[in-house]
Design a protein that fits this description.
The protein has about 500 residues and is α/β, with parallel strands linked by helices. Helix content is about 45%, strand content about 15%. The protein has 16 helices and 13 strands. Strand 2 (about 95-100) and strand 3 form a beta hairpin. The structure holds adenosine-5'-diphosphate and magnesium ion. Adenosine-5'-diphosphate (ADP) binds near residues 251, 252, 447 and 448. It is found in: Mitochondrion outer membrane.
Length: about 500
């Protein structure tokens, strides 16, 4: 009897302890969960992009554009002159070439134009890698290599139309490095980026160096236009649709350009008398405004970047950075709570989480969020994350992406406002309901926009919210692929020396 009651007593004590333990564990778990949720809630509040706030960003963008056009260094927006006055309009004829030098590879293209705004442009492309040793060689060696490749490409004809025989061969050159443009076909290299260090090129006219190499190789090909990829995108958009007024690139980096009235470019009044309009390269990645919803994660990312205080807008919206903002939030969650178990060393590795990965997590439509689970396990090395926590991770991806897309939309409306295409009276005027809104096309390109469906949807939604349905229905965003190739060949056509009747 006695022994039995002892057993019962022991059982009660043990069971009681277990219950207490379980309750304690549950309380602790709930507390930890709440801490993690608090981190997410704070980010959500700090990333808030109400339509009122977006309209402030719109105004700031338009005002900064004005300031950047008024004087050199007047704004963080450089508002660079491209000297591109003639955008292709579909009437171009003949065969033109393009050289697209983006990074450690380049492409050469040949485009055949029949003068009828060809819906599908017949063209040929060749992709080539630049040998490593040339990245740090001399401008002569570098351009001799490029010129040889071009010569081989041009001589592998295909160019057999009568038009081409009579005309001089012309080339558009997409050069994705910082340059000071002097004319449509000349520009001085300011500095190299992306691993290039051809020291004797800095301060030289880049197309002139290419032209000299082409002469050395005995190739009769004139460099007719030097542009960046955004300008190529605008050209391609305009070729297909004359209502195209601006182009946006949202990929690894981000930029925008648009067609401006020459008399609004105050910083070079008097110099530009030949044409009524010019494409302006905004370099909008460097836009900044106190109205941008900035978090401690953005501040840290900026401080730890190789270019602190530059490219502030880009660091909030482009594909290079979104994954890393999410990683920083996850790190904070893991420091504040134990919902992810241990703190994986991967959380502290910059850029380990890429933007395509956060897109995959965010767009995971499997019932148990298997993709989120896979990325957490394989990339961040946190296995066995409960479903509830996986959902929270997905939410974080959504917050960061939504802010980016909505800010990009505000930037676009800022451009429309500057050129009086947002349905308001421009920078100074209020909203005018009586104004007739013209059909307005914005060419858009880049891996973030074209591959991340929810990013695209958030951007469109914000555009509609800011402009209102009546105005937004006149604004069309058109995906325009391969501006830096085909678009640039089209610019060679519209700036061709064969076009005596233009300007
Ligand atoms: P680049 O900007 O380097 O010229 P792209 O326009 O192709 O090249 O954009 C590539 C960038 O787009 C990637 O760095 C990435 O940030 C983003 N991206 C590509 N695919 C996806 C995807 N599926 N989801 C989200 N972002 C993506
Ligand atoms: Mg690109």
């Amino acid at each position: 009897m006695e022994a039995n009651s002892t057993v019962v007593l022991i059982f009660h004590v043990v069971a009681g302890d277990m219950v207490k333990c379980l309750v304690g564990w549950r309380v602790r778990k709930r507390r930890e969960w709440k801490k993690a949720v608090r981190v997410v809630r704070e980010v959500e509040e700090e990333c808030e992009t109400s339509v009122e706030r977006l309209r402030q960003v719109v105004d700031a963008m338009a005002v900064e554009m004005h300031a950047g056009l008024a004087s050199e260094g007047g704004s963080k927006l450089k508002m660079l002159l491209t000297h591109v006055h003639n955008l292709p309009n579909g009437s171009e004829r003949g065969t033109y070439y393009a050289l697209d030098l983006e990074g450690t590879y380049f492409r050469v293209l040949r485009v055949h134009l029949n003068g009828q705004q060809s819906a599908i442009l017949e063209h040929e492309v060749e992709l080539q890698t630049i040998p490593q040793h040339l990245l740090t060689s001399t401008s002569k060696d570098f351009f001799d290599f490029i010129a040889s490749s071009l010569k081989e490409f041009v001589e592998k004809e295909g160019d057999d139309s009568e038009l081409s025989v009579a005309r001089r061969k012309e080339l558009g050159f997409t050069f994705s490095f910082p340059i000071k443009q002097i004319s449509v076909c000349s520009g001085i290299l300011i500095t190299w980026t992306k691993g290039f260090s051809i020291v004797d090129m800095v301060g030289k006219d880049v197309p002139a160096c290419l032209q000299e190499a082409l002469v050395r190789k005995g190739l009769d090909l004139r460099v007719a236009a030097l542009v960046n990829d955004t300008v190529g995108t605008l050209a391609l958009g305009h070729y297909h649709d004359a209502d195209t007024v601006a182009a946006i690139v949202i990929g690894t980096s981000t930029n925008a350009c648009y067609l401006e009235r020459t008399d609004a470019i105050i910083k070079c009044q008097g110099l530009l008398t030949t044409s009524r309009s010019m494409v302006v390269n905004m370099e909008w990645g460097n836009f900044w405004s106190s109205h941008l919803p900035r978090t401690s994660y953005d501040i840290d990312l900026n401080a730890e970047s190789p270019n602190p205080n530059d490219q502030g807008f880009e660091k909030m919206i482009s594909g290079m950075y979104l994954g890393d903002i999410v990683r920083r939030i996850i790190l904070k969650m893991s420091l504040e709570s134990d919902i992810l178990g241990h703190i994986s060393s991967k959380f502290s590795m910059p850029f380990i989480l890429s933007t395509p990965m956060i897109a995959a997590m965010h767009e995971d439509d499997s019932p148990n969020l298997r993709e989120v689970e896979r990325i957490l396990k394989d990339i961040l090395e946190v296995p066995d994350v409960p479903l509830k926590v996986r959902k929270l991770m997905m939410k974080v991806c959504g917050i960061v992406t939504r802010r980016a897309a909505r800010l990009a939309a505000a930037g676009i409306v800022g451009i429309l406002k500057k050129i009086g295409r947002d349905g308001s009276g421009g920078i100074t005027g209020g909203r005018r309901s009586d104004m007739k809104m013209r059909r307005t096309v914005v060419a858009i390109e880049g891996g973030l926009y074209s591959n991340y469906t929810l990013f695209r949807e958030y951007l469109h939604e914000a555009l509609h919210e800011i402009l209102g349905e009546d105005i937004a229905k006149h604004v069309i965003l058109k995906v325009t692929e391969d501006g830096s190739g085909i678009g640039t060949a089209l610019l060679a056509a519209s700036h061709s020396s064969n076009n005596v009747d233009r300007i």
